[in-house]
Amino acid sequence: MGTLGAVSFYIAFLSHTTVFESLRMRSVDSLYRWRAGHAQNSQALSQIVVIGADDDSFHKINRRWPWPRPVHAVFLDKLEALGPKVVALDFAYIGRSEGERVDEWLAEAIGKNRNVILASYFTEGGKHLLPLDRFHEKALGLGFANKIEDADDVNRRASFQVPLEGGREKVPSLSLAAVSAFAGKEIGIPPNRGWQSYRYSPQKFSYIPFWKVVAGKADEGLVRGRIAVVGAVSPSTHDIHPTPLGPMAGVYIHANEAASLLEGDFVRSGFLDHEWIFLLMLAAFFFAIFSRMDLLKGFLVLLALGFLLVALSGFLFTRMNVLIEPFSPVWVLAFVYGVCLLRRSLSAYLENRALQRQVVMDHLTGLYGYKYLSLRLGREFQNSSAEFCYVMVDIDKFKDVNDSHGHETGNAVIVGVAKILKNGVRASDVAARYGGDEFCLILLNCGRPAAEQTMEKIRKSVENASFKSEYGDFHVTVSIGVACRKTVDAKTAQDLITFADKALYQAKLGGRNKICVY
Q1: Looking at the predicted structure, is the pLDDT value of residue 272 above 70?
Q2: pTM for this one?
Q3: Fewer CB in a 10 Å sphere around the end CB: N or C, the chain?
Q4: Closest by Cα among 396, 49, 383 to 208
Q5: How far is the C-alpha of 433 from the C-alpha of 496, rounded, in Å?
Q6: What is d(CA 38, CA 17) in angstroms, rounded to the nearest whole number?
Q7: 3-class SS at 257?
Q8: Is residue 365 within 8 Å of 434, Cβ to Cβ?
């Protein structure tokens, strides 16, 4: 459930953040580039020619940009002789020029061709900017030339119609108006603002520089009977837009849209609005796989499934025009593997900790065991420059307790004494069960007076403690031996143990229930 919850968080929130949105869109762009790199020439490419106002044309025509309208009028006069079926002009003929006669000349050229589609534009506020009325009246049609940009400023989507204010009338795009005129009928279009096809890079389209048309040197075979999409292609005109295939002049974006319309080549978004269901199902499927595999096998499956998901996305997009952005499925795959890996690592860590605890801790009392005690004492003896005391504690006449009250009661006494010891020392001190009814303490940063005071409190607590059995309540006492490092001549940790053991023996000989310091 935790894995599905995390994946749901990614779908609902994380995937829409700037970083993840960028990664998702870049994975989409990689599919576009792959498809364009393997696209075959189609019938649509033979029906479109791009005529570009490029740097060479600026040099040949020898006029500053934007060119005055007489240049456009001459261009249209020359273009008519080449016989294009439709001319889509991606130029802004908005407002009057420097002279009435100039505008009239251009209007006559537009009307003479009888096949010109002019560009209109929408402002950011939604205002529709139309060409000058005299141009509009002479043109065959009108289409907006705006491009749609995603949040990262890349143009990936196409809008073929935009409703005007009130929604009664819809303005077609420049490409839709041109293709409809070319086909002589209305063209079926996908839902508004769908993915742009971008099947063809600019190099796939037939191209003629603007100056060649003006100079009468254009190849008629590239123009006659085609859709001529005309616009600026020079970076200096600022009509270059980021696309999945790289920077592309607006005229090539219109050409791609026109090719898409001619071929009915519309990209469909895989799973549409239900992609979250697909991703959750993938997460559950991946979790079921990885939770049953070891680390190496799981990693190999991760690589194989990741490759398969990317390959499947590429196949669906290239062959079936179904777009499933590959980043999210691959990210879910890697995330689920990471969760399973973390889960397994955490489980192994907890198991190891439990095993270590079983080795280090005494299972009956919860105190440290003898192995840890000896290691810790050796470390403190070697590394600690401060005073510390080693204490041995033995329950007096414990055999009588077992004989009189039974071993279960004896165990209860051991547990009770262990609790008193643990509560009687500081958290930094070490309390351990040495074995049987014998305990040891390491009192850190503690001299002889403090050690005697601490152990006296513990001795009295044990003496006053009451234990129950089926034969009635009873009491026990303890004998205690103390050896402090700086008050004895101990060369090794074992010497300290020996001295504490001797002190304990003296306490036993002295009548028990007492403390002796070596």
Answers
A1: no
A2: 0.68
A3: N
A4: 49
A5: 17
A6: 32
A7: helix
A8: no
